[in-house]
Amino acid sequence: QTGTPRYAGDMLFLWDGVSLVTAVLALFAIPEMIALGVKGGAISAVPMEDKNFSYRQLFQGVMEVPRHWWLVLRTSVIGAVVGMIPGLGGSAAAWLCYGHAVQSSKHPERFGKGAIEGVIAPETASNGKEGGSLLPTLFFGIPGSSGMAVLLGAFLILGIQPGATMMTDHLDLVWTLIWALIVGNLIAVAIFLFVCRWVARLTFVNGAVLVPFIMVFVAFGCYVSERQWQNLVMLVILSIIGYGLLRARWPRAPFVIGLVLGGQAEASLNQALQLWGYAFFLRPLSLVLIGMIVLLLATSVYKHRRRGSLNPEFSG
Questions:
Q1: How far is residue 8 CA from its own chain's centroid?
Q2: What is the crossing angle of helices 230-248 and 30-39, to 10°?
Q3: Residues 6 or more apart in contact with residue 235 via CB below 8 angstroms
Q4: Above pLDDT 90, what percent of the chain?
Q5: What is the DSSP letter of 316?
Q6: Beta bridge pairs of residue 73
Q7: CA-CA distance, 80 to 129, in Å (whole number)?
Q8: CA–CA dist 75, 63 (Å, integer)
Q9: Mean pLDDT, the chain, as a whole number?
Q10: pLDDT digit string, tens, across residues 77-107
Q11: DSSP codes, 261-312
Q12: N or C: the chain end with fewer CB closer than 10 Å?
């Protein structure tokens, strides 16, 4: 931590790093739109006239959640834990859980091609992190996300001091917020069940009509996120990289996870080294985490080689 800008190239807008909004839009939204434009047709492979919209099919999709209850439980816990860490937020929780779902799946090759686990994991994490981010906001006065920062500001305006006294002086408010999270999610589900039948029809719109509109919204969202025109240049550069990764079938999620966690990981590592020096790596908790990382890497390599031996086409 020398305070010297790195990889900024004398460009001031890069001093704060690459905008996460720009990176996500460039690596995921635009490459998919380019691929859709090249392929032609609509997003859905099923013709409009052959698709029968019914709530029975919606119920079948909903029932996939209890079938994957173990994944839901794991990603809920991960989302809640990540939500407790200030500065990470929902994006980190969603991508971490998506990567966990891919890594723990028996068929990771299905991800990106309609695997239901790829939807369940990040959405569960996004919901789970809300409760997690509420804890440090209420009991330590440290906002767990941007939304909780707004809530913390509202508390201070009203003269409510977050901290340990919240459980004694404002217990009714704590329970009100907890119930608000629960009821809010239930209301969101009810609204979704009502409108999803019509929203799903967007997947049958021809790409020639859909792509230009989405491109405009992507560019607008990229600019509005920080109100800097340089973000549009970064959007183009990262979009080229994202489309190249898509064509090469390289996963794009680790790219975003690195952007989300890189700065936080480096800052935490520097703090640990300043406190304990290199003996930090020999502490019991560090050894346990290093062992878990090695075990996960070894398991991933073993699974990859096993799938390659069973399916030569998959191994390339």
A1: 25
A2: 60
A3: 22, 25, 26, 30, 218, 219, 222
A4: 1
A5: -
A6: none
A7: 4
A8: 17
A9: 78
A10: 888 888 777 666 566 777 788 888 887 777 7
A11: HHHHHHHHHHHHHHHHGGGGGGSHHHHHHHHHHHHHHHHHHHHHHHHHHH-H
A12: C
The answer to whether 22 and 225 are in contact (CB under 8 A) is yes
Beta bridge partners of 42: 206
Confidence of residue 46 (pLDDT cuts 50, 70, 90): low
Provide the b/e sequence for 243-257 (b: ≥16 CB within 10 Å). bebbeeeebbbebbb
CA 215/CA 61 separation, integer angstroms: 29
What residue segments make up the domains of the chain, in order of their start? Answer: 18-262
Q: In this structure, what token pair is assigned to residue 275? A: 């406190």
Residue 175 has a CB neighbour count (10 Å cut-off) of 10
Query: Which contacts qualify for 231-236: CB closer than 8 Å, 24 or more apart?
Result: 231/13, 231/19, 231/22, 234/18, 234/19, 234/22, 234/26, 235/22, 235/25, 235/26, 235/30, 236/26
Amino acid (one-letter) located at 300:
S
Q: Confidence band (pLDDT; 50, 70, 90) for 256?
A: confident
Which tokens sit at 173?
Answer: 């408010």
Q: Which residue has the higher pLDDT, 43 or 233?
A: 233
| Overall pTM > 0.70 | no
Q: What is the pLDDT of residues 133-169, one digit of tens each?
A: 888 888 877 776 667 777 777 777 777 878 777 777 7
Q: How far is CA 307 from CA 151, 294, 311, in A?
A: 48, 20, 6
Q: How far is CA 77 from each of CA 121, 128, 179, rounded to the nearest angstrom? A: 11, 7, 19
